[in-house]
Write a structure and sequence with these properties.
This protein is an all-alpha fold and about 100 residues long. Helices cover about 80% and strands about 0% of the residues. It has 3 helices and no strands. It is elongated and about 70 Å long. The termini are far apart.
Length: about 100
């Protein structure tokens, strides 16, 4: 008799069945839990990238605004307008951080 090479043996089938059971048992190993944790991981990664892009954009805007103030405002008042702009950015940053921290609690 010729044994077919493509068909798995009974032992292999049982071993595969047991490994599937080991993966499916337990609260932390369910497929739904893996999907949810993967989605949370992807969401966190996207959020981190977006925060980095926003920070880069804010720094770029800040320094470009400082250059615009230097170009548009009379040199006598440049330091005052730059200080007021910096104070406004600082106040907005503190306000935003306070709102974010109060929402987390």
């Amino acid at each position: 008799m010729v044994k077919q090479e493509d068909s798995p043996s009974v032992e292999e089938k049982e071993a595969d069945h047991h490994s599937d059971e080991a993966r499916m048992t337990g609260k932390g190993n369910s497929p739904e839990n893996h999907d949810a944790s993967f989605k949370r991981l992807v969401n966190a990664a996207v959020l981190i990238v977006l925060v980095i892009l926003v920070l880069i954009s804010m720094f770029s805007f800040f320094f470009n605004m400082q250059a615009a103030i230097a170009a548009l405002i009379h040199p006598k008042y440049q330091a005052l307008v730059q200080a007021l702009f910096s104070l406004l950015v600082l106040i907005m940053g503190i306000y935003t951080i306070k709102r974010l921290l109060s929402n987390k609690r």
